[in-house]
Amino acid sequence: MRKKYIVRLDEEERRHLNKTIKKLKGGSQKVRRAHILLKADADGSNWTDKQIAEAFCCRTQTVENIRKQFVANGFRQALDGKKESVHRLRNY
Hints:
This protein is an all-alpha fold. 58% of the residues lie in helices and 0% in strands.
């Protein structure tokens, strides 16, 4: 199956991802996203979504979503994940 969203990392992005993984910087989800982005890199490992999903114990849909987020929203958003605003409602 042809990939719709292609991840192409530059050297600085690769260094940042490797540093994140090496130092386990951030939460476990951030480290997993770093692994996925490195393996999805078309100019690097270029693993299939199925290979990535099996290696990091996630669904192929998760890998596809991270690819999509990288292409649509950029490197930082794909690595850090979706930033959801939390609104607390107070009942008086």
